[in-house]
Automatic annotation (TrEMBL):
Keywords: Metal-binding. It comes from the Eukaryota. This is HMA domain-containing protein. One of its GO terms (molecular function) is metal ion binding. Residues 1-29 form the HMA domain. It comes from Nelumbo nucifera. PANTHER family: COPPER TRANSPORT PROTEIN ATOX1-RELATED, HEAVY METAL-ASSOCIATED ISOPRENYLATED PLANT PROTEIN 23.
Amino acid sequence: MKQQKATVTGYVDAKKVLKKAQSTGKKAEIWPYVPYNLVAHPYTAQAYDKKAPPGYVRNVETTATSMVHTQEEKYTTIFSDENPNACSIM
């Protein structure tokens, strides 16, 4: 109450919660930060924010850059020594 903040946990639709909170006449917004381990690339320009609390970054959507990275990762694991089903080229 002192900070004028509410925390909602669980599996809920954020838009519905926001709409319900705004219907009270108070200012309401979704907190833009998530734990950094939930973001594919937490130190990109879009995600990193100096104002974020420690261990948090901006909640950003997956970009095409991260999609390319995962494709490259798939190709490199095909020939990995750690992959028991890997191919080998002679």
